[in-house]
Amino acid sequence: MMPNYRNVHNKFKLDNVSYKHEDLMEVAYSYVKEGLPFQQELGNFLLDWLDDYDYVEVQTSGSTGKPKKLKIKKQAMVNSALATGDFFNLKPGYKVLHCLPSNFIAGKMTIVRAIILGLELDMVQPSAFPRIDYEKDYDFCAFTPMQLKNFAKDIESIKAVIVGGGMVSKHIVDLIQDKKPMVYETYGMTETVSHIAVRKLNNLESTEKVSYFKTLPNITISTDDRDCLVIEAPAISDETIVTNDIVKIHSEDSFEWLGRYDNVVNSGGIKLYPEQIERKLQNKIQTDFFITSKPDDTLGEKLVLVIQSDSNKLEPAVFEDLGKYEKPKEIINVPKFVETSSGKIHRQRTLDSVNS
What we know:
There is one protein chain. It contains 8 helices and 20 strands. By secondary structure, the protein is an alpha/beta fold. The strands form 4 sheets. The protein has a 13-stranded mixed beta sheet. A 3-stranded mixed beta sheet has the order 18-19-20.
């Protein structure tokens, strides 16, 4: 069953060609048969979008567990697109840059927004360094943190940017502070049909020393007994979504993300959040790394720094901003990190590769 296209516009533009909704099937077959691999991904998604089922199957990234396929209601995707359109004031004819893989939820939602909101979509091959036409101006774009880092100097050509899929380092935030476009970090997952909250990374008001995640309309948040975020979002999920993200709620529509419950380290009775420590080290370590733990007879768990490098020699100054209990007890070198199919670091499998 096709979703209810509330306020849908009858056409959108893809790669400078205008299409009506009745043309989508022809467009899909054209991309599947004649397109490059990233274009075939878009074509395959359009075929799924146009079939008789009321859902599409979406694969999770697998960064915190085994990748799995979820059935996402098409109407939920429409509702998510409308919520994003309302929040960012996206109007028919606005130009959107699409440089994400179309086989994951973030890329699929970029396409759905274009269809539902009547946007002009320019698609380029997904990569860490997207080959973008710098002569064009765009109204909206979604980046990964790596893409934003590499594109930061040219971001003036985009009015509004969202970034998700990984931690946004302080270095990246510093790169965009003097840029005019509004840049938002997103919070979401496959189960929430892309993002359900955003936080400003630049152009903060003078009273905003810290920016927290602010939920989109019609989202209710709370925490469970683990201090993990619980999401009520009737427009995108029939069920309450219980996450493994530890948060601190600051108001009925804002929260601070502290880290993953799966990653919390209890060292000698002290709870440590690896993601918070990683933020402090982002500008001090020039290669990929992450914080985790190993069993310890005295502490129960000891804090470990895992680096993608051939040498584990780090100057003491690297750790000077860390608290007493935040300093790693051991440094482990790994020639190459294990990654998920979407390019995220798989912490547990990387650590297992060292121990095997």
